Amino acid sequence: MKVVGLTGGIGSGKSTIAQMFKKLGVSVYIADDEAKLLMNTNQVVKKQISELFGDKAYISGSLNREYIASVVFNDSSILNKLNGIVHPAVAEHFAQWKEKQTGNYVVKEAAVLIENDGYKQCDYTILVTAPIDIRIERVLKRDNITRDQILSRINNQWEDSRKIPLVDFVIDNVDLEDTENQVYEIHNKISF
User: Fold this and answer.
1) CA 103 – CA 119 distance, rounded (Å)
2) 8-34 per-residue burial string, b: 16 or more CB within 10 A, e: under 16
3) Residues β-bridged to residue 3
4) How far apart are CA 17 and CA 173, in angstroms?
5) Among the listed residues 4, 29, 1, the one whose alpha carbon sits nearest the alpha carbon of residue 122
6) Dist. CA 137–CA 120, nearest whole Å
7) What's the sign of the alpha-carbon dihedral 43, 48, 49, 51?
8) For residues 163 and 38, what is the distance between their CA atoms, to the nearest angstrom?
9) CB 140 within 8 A of CB 183
10) 66-93 burial, b for 16+ CB within 10 Å, e for fewer?
């Protein structure tokens, strides 16, 4: 079974694209959602995160996301250490999930698929792009964070121009109808 990596910067519309693949009957694995789940339920992961961040890492057994975010988005070395804990756990979970799926391919949606070399484990990779002002507007509507916090996260991610040479397909996600057409074309190319 083929693995299609789906990635893009914050606010690019990865989740929207993932839903479009689901409508086509494709199984989709949302790595960020699974990572959050693992950080709250996997005892080994929880122990390692507690060792890295200390007592403030969890409140009543639940990940203190605000605290973790405030630390990692201002210190890339801590972010790298956190990724070193979470990414292997997600990779193992994905492998187990994939074994239970049917179809010609599955989609693995992950924000940092290129940055952490995860794309190398994919048969195809799709990058979702959108102009930065549209991305900021989307995140402001979706999340309870400031423009500065969004820009900080964008600055912690690779620019699209650095990712494009490493992917197989680019979806320009501005017009929804056009985006659906792009998804459908890609689906037809990789289904066979």
Assistant:
1) 20
2) bbbbbbbbbbbebbeebebbbbbbeeb
3) 106
4) 8
5) 4
6) 31
7) positive
8) 27
9) no
10) eebeebbeeeeeebebbbebbbebbeeb
- Tell me 101's DSSP state: -
**pLDDT at residue 175 greater than cutoff 90:** yes
Give the confidence band of 105 by pLDDT, cuts at 50, 70, 90. Answer: very high
Under 8 Å between Cβ of 104 and 191: yes
- d(C-alpha 143, C-alpha 150), whole Å: 10
Q: 109: which 2 tokens?
A: 């949606």
What mean pLDDT do residues 142-158 have?
88
pLDDT 10s digits, 45-92: 999 999 999 999 999 999 999 999 889 878 889 988 998 999 899 999
First to last CA, the chain: 11
**Per residue, what are the HEC states of 12-34?**
CCHHHHHHHHHHCCCEEEEHHHH
Query: Residue written as tokens 């998804």?
Result: 183
Residue positions counted in the chain: 192
CA torsion angle 27 29 30 31 (round to 10): -170
pLDDT band at 192 (very low <50, low <70, confident <90, very high): confident
Exposure of 122 by Cβ count < 10 A (0-12 exposed, 13-18 middle, 19+ buried)?
A: buried
| CA 19 to mean position of chain CA atoms | 14
